[in-house]
Amino acid sequence: MAEMCAGWVNDAGDHHDCRFVYESPDHAFHGKSYCRFHLPMGEAGEGGKADWDDEQQAAISDDIVSRIKAEAEKPEDVRERLDFSGVVVPRRINLGRETVWKIDFSGAQFHGWADFAAARFHDRAYFDGAQFHVFADFEEAQFLGDADFRKARFHGWANFRKTWFHDWAFFRAARFHESAMFTGSSDISQVEMRRFNKVRFDGARFHDRADFPTANSMIAPISKLVFLMKPPNSAGRACIRAPNSATSIAFPT
Ligand SMILES: [Zn+2]
User: Fold this and answer.
1) How far apart are CA 123 and CA 112, in angstroms?
2) How many whole angstroms separate alpha carbon 123 and alpha carbon 143?
3) Taking the model in full, what pTM does it have?
4) Residue 221 phi/psi, 5° resolution?
């Protein structure tokens, strides 16, 4: 076995080192050695996580959740950024209603339900290049720092209903392969209107239905918004307000 985990490779083919210094790379996969966090899923019979039993698969999620909880209990001045970049999570991960401090899920792969519903992210949250293979649930989550979903891929339903972005929300070049929901409650109050502060969807692609608030709750320098196939809401129209002008974009029905 090699001394180090082979780490992970992003969509662009860039290699990233493993940050789990205490994990031994004792999982072989396609001629490389991996720690348990970075071992790919693979197909059945390939030696990846697809071959793991339920208990082994669930242990990855449990370990990540317990590390996040432990960090949240530390005094603020000793909290560190938890680097879960490139981790392959084979099962549901349940961080619903949890308090999350500095977190890095860049390039992470969620093969089960990614449950972040009503979680509170207190610092910039990195999900850039993350892949959500089933269901990305951020309903009622609060991002107190930037939310970075650049180049993220949502293969299943992306639920950002009532999600509160207190600072920048980056969805540049994100891909939504199924429904994407960014709506709030139907009763849009002043508070509701501030859910989006600064958001970028430039270059994002929506391959299915996308629902956005139709009130002026999106205030953004949106330079390029690409919708494919279906209109973003039942009215076939999303209202997007730029800093100095309101732009209403009509979609073919
Ligand atoms: Zn590793």
Assistant:
1) 25
2) 8
3) 0.84
4) -85, 70
Q: Coil, strand, or helix at residue 241?
A: strand
| Tens-place pLDDT, residues 72-116 | 999 989 998 999 999 999 999 999 999 999 999 999 999 999 999
pLDDT at residue 150, as a whole number: 95
Amino acid at 230: K
Nearest to 45 by CA among 35, 57, 30: 30
Q: What are 168's two structure tokens?
A: 């920048």
Question: How far is CA 47 from each of CA 15, 38, 39, 108, 109, rounded to the nearest angstrom?
Answer: 21, 13, 9, 19, 17
In 3-state terms, what secondary structure has residue 147?
strand
- Domain map (residue ranges) of the chain: 81-250
246-250 and 237-241 beta bridge pairing: antiparallel
Separation CA 225–CA 218 (nearest Å): 13
Whole-number Å distance, alpha carbon 84 to ligand 1 midpoint, is 9
> What is the 26 CA–ligand 1 centroid distance (Å)?
10
Instruction: Find the 248 Cα to ligand 1 centroid distance in Å.
Output: 46
Residue given tokens 């989006």 in the structure block: 196
Rounded CA gap, 253 and 251, in Å?
6
Indicate whether 246 pLDDT > 90.
Answer: no
- Using the mean position of ligand 1's atoms as its centre, give its distance from the Cα of residue 13 in Å: 17
